[in-house]
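User: tokens in, sequence out, please.
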């Protein structure tokens, strides 16, 4: 069971705001995404992924990797989910709402040159920092087809490669069993279009530096077709270094 999203979104996963930002602002630039996702409450009670997410050893491992005290997400849908990329599905550039995500490759696409996980170096420190110029530069450079000839107003006209304003795009060698720890709220990232007949399956486990994190209602509805308030059965626990 997996809800399919076939919609557009901005890099910030926020509603467009023409009152605060111009129509040609990267804040209002919408890109298409087609992806399916199985929510946490749709996983079986004896799911290995559920057990993995609640295993304190994983929380301690991720906390040590990022050198931060982390907590499990309280999101009853998105704390631990499985992204299903069927043929021709893809996920456009975006920042995550959760500060850190751990993704586990379960099954890659049939065509090894498709379904690539790509990410920029960190473009910002927190959600309040929109990093408009860097985000606009990244989309112009690495996803120009989404613009349909449009020019984003924040795009730098300077020599981007010389002044460091051209974000570098990295492609992860994402083999089955690979565990990725990503500060997805800081780096733009995407999954390229799937080719071949086999679906790409990736488990997504989310963590936060603050207890009680839950995705916004709009993000829940976008990726799981519904919204759900935080539940007590998703217990926030913290370990690690500050």
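Assistant: Sequence out:
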């Amino acid at each position: 069971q997996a809800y399919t999203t076939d919609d557009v979104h901005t890099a910030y996963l926020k509603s467009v705001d023409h009152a605060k930002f111009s129509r040609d602002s990267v804040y209002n630039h919408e890109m298409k995404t087609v992806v399916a996702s199985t929510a946490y409450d749709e996983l079986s009670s004896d799911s290995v992924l559920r057990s993995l997410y609640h295993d304190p050893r994983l929380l301690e491992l991720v906390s040590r990797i990022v050198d931060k005290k982390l907590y499990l997400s309280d999101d009853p849908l998105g704390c631990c989910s499985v992204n299903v990329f069927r043929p021709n599905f893809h996920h456009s550039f975006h920042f995550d709402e959760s500060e850190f995500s751990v993704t586990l490759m379960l099954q890659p696409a049939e065509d090894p040159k498709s379904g690539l996980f790509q990410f920029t170096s960190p473009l910002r420190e927190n959600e309040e920092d929109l990093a408009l110029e860097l985000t606009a530069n990244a989309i112009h450079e690495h996803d120009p087809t989404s613009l349909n000839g449009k020019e984003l107003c924040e795009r730098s006209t300077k020599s981007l490669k010389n002044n460091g304003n051209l974000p570098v795009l990295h492609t992860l060698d994402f083999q089955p069993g690979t565990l990725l720890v990503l500060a997805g709220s800081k780096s733009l990232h995407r999954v390229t279009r799937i080719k071949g007949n086999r679906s790409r399956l990736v488990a997504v486990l989310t963590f936060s530096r603050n207890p009680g994190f839950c995705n916004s209602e709009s993000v829940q509805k976008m990726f799981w077709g519904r919204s759900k308030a935080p539940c007590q059965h998703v217990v926030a626990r913290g370990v690690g270094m500050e």
